[in-house]
Task: inverse folding
């Protein structure tokens, strides 16, 4: 049951082949069996079975939405009323959210059955899931390999068949990079498409929630339930949500694909470059033409991103002060001591580095040199994308410079880890939608395990339907998205 | 290194973030490397460029000035480490 698509499961539920309770129990059993993956921070077994019973009732009554009775899981960044919402941090280890995120409410109303809360890098800061207070999740393709981050638990759970699909969030690549590392399909929507209300903030001008699933078809269904205007989010966009599933099967004849040459230079693994060539050939066969682009400011995305994201992080995370909720140190001597020690004890090293970096970039005398400069570069990058997207329908690129790396390989040098985000962060700066779809597996050698490869699709604002269409067309003629890691069949 | 341990102590205090003395060297080293990466931005001329704070060029949405939230003080204070008679307790600030 864990290899079926949402549509197949929905049909099975409606035909009475299995009930949502049986389906939910199947996934709960798998979660228990593959506990060592550490994909979940919290498993909400009772909650899930109650929701499944309600779903079965709703299905019996007829007219239930498509996601009714489908087991999925939330990244632990989305507030869930009455359920621990840790954001991967010791700071919020004792935090039982007092309200639901809009995305949580929406999926609940759609009838989806929440299995639990997924592992992630602390406050979504990381590219390997190793910054989680609860320990790293493991990649189902190899236990010694990272699943990527920050939505590493989401990617691992979906790839391992512990949930049909999952929510993720993406500030600099946190949906796309783990999707690529675990061989699943992930979509970061346009900024403002999915409500950020109740999604714990890291860098508010960059954060965006989105679907992680086993195919573009499933991602379209999940995005449909997540997207839409929300008056509780001041940056939510009041644009109609198209029917994402309806556009999936449109022809790609005449599609213009742009390749920014800056994304195919030194540093890109040669096997990944080859896999991308192969995928582009499939697109040619589907009727697409390839156009080379030059977007010179892309190379400045990493420094600009880490200034802006750190600055917004230092401001957003100032709310964790040990007074109203979250971790508080024992026996504070005075108020300053309470702040200093509660924050020192509650935050991990990477979060501390970014708070310090952001505080520095925003401090008197440095604001113009770092923060303002980065905002100007953000403009140039955004203009570069806008210009490129007048020439082509979609931009394609690698998602990551290399395959998933081994646990511990990059933790010693934070800057080394940041370079992992080379191909994904510029898209967040521009606020555009982008996807990662699986397009290959690395060669199986005694030294290195077989690991998935992702292709990034980048579109214009609110072109999610087009991206899903482009991804779906590829998934109709290839089967990379259907591969299942050994041991999880 | 672009920063000294004293710089980092100062920044940490501004952020109200306690840093143990034995961690100062490592943070100074990492933050200097991060700053080094960021100075790459200087290789691009941005003199005439308008800074971009937000991905979408939209103004702040306004709403009617009506009360929309209900009082949930007790509900929210359940989460607090220390409350008494409806107020959050912290160490004495004024003697």
Result:
């Amino acid at each position: 049951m864990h290899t079926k698509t949402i549509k197949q499961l929905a049909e099975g539920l409606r035909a009475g082949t299995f009930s949502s309770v049986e389906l939910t129990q199947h996934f709960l059993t798998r979660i228990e069996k593959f506990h060592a993956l550490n994909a979940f921070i919290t498993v909400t077994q009772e909650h899930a079975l109650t929701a499944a019973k309600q779903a079965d009732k709703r299905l019996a009554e007829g007219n239930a939405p498509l996601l009714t009775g489908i087991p999925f899981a939330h990244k632990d960044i989305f507030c869930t009323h009455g359920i621990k919402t840790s954001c991967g941090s010791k700071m919020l280890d004792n935090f039982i959210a007092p309200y639901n995120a809009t995305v949580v409410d929406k999926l609940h109303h759609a009838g989806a059955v929440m299995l639990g809360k997924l592992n992630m890098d602390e406050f979504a800061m990381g590219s390997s899931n190793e910054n989680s207070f609860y320990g790293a999740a493991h990649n189902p393709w190899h236990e010694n390999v990272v699943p990527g981050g920050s939505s590493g638990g989401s990617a691992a759970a979906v790839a391992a068949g512990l949930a049909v699909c999952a929510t993720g969030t993406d500030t600099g690549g946190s949906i796309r990079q783990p999707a690529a590392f675990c061989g699943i399909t992930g979509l970061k929507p346009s900024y403002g498409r999915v409500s950020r209300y109740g999604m714990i903030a890291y860098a508010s001008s960059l954060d965006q929630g989105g679907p992680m699933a086993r195919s573009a078809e499933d991602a379209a269904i999940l995005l449909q339930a997540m997207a839409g205007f929300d008056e509780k989010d001041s940056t939510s966009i009041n644009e109609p949500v198209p029917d994402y599933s309806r556009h999936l099967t449109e022809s790609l004849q005449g599609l213009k694909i742009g390749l920014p040459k800056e994304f195919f230079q030194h540093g890109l693994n040669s096997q990944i470059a080859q896999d991308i060539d192969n995928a582009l050939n499939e697109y040619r066969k589907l009727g697409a033409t390839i156009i080379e682009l030059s977007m010179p400011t892309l190379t400045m995305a990493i420094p600009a991103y880490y200034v802006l994201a750190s600055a917004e992080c230092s401001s957003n995370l100032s709310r964790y002060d040990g007074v109203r909720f979250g971790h508080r140190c024992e026996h504070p001597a005075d108020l300053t001591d309470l702040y200093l020690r509660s924050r020192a004890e509650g935050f991990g090293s990477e979060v501390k580095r970014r708070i310090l970096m952001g505080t520095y970039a925003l401090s008197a005398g440095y604001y113009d040199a770092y923060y303002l400069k980065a905002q100007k570069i953000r403009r140039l990058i955004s203009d570069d994308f806008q210009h490129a997207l007048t020439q082509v329908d979609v931009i394609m690129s690698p998602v990551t410079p290399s395959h998933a790396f081994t646990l511990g390989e990059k933790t010693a040098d934070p800057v080394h880890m940041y370079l992992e985000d080379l191909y994904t962060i510029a898209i967040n700066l521009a606020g555009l939608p982008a996807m990662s779809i699986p397009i290959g597996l690395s060669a199986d050698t005694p030294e290195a395990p077989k690991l998935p490869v992702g292709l990034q699709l980048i579109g214009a604002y609110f072109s999610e339907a087009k991206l899903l269409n482009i991804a779906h067309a590829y998934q109709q003629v290839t089967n990379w998205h259907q591969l299942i890691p050994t041991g999880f069949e | 290194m672009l920063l000294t341990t004293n710089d980092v102590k100062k920044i940490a205090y501004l952020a109200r973030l306690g840093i143990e003395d034995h961690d100062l060297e490592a943070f100074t080293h990492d933050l200097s490397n991060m700053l080094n990466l960021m100075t790459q931005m200087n290789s691009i001329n941005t003199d005439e460029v308008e800074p971009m704070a937000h991905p979408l060029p939209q103004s702040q949405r306004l709403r009617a000035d009506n009360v929309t939230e209900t009082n949930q003080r007790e509900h929210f204070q359940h989460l607090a480490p220390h409350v008494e008679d409806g107020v959050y307790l912290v160490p004495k600030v004024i003697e």
User: Anything to note?
Assistant: Chain A has one domain: 6-255+390-482. Residues 84 and 164 of chain A are 22 Å apart (CA to CA).
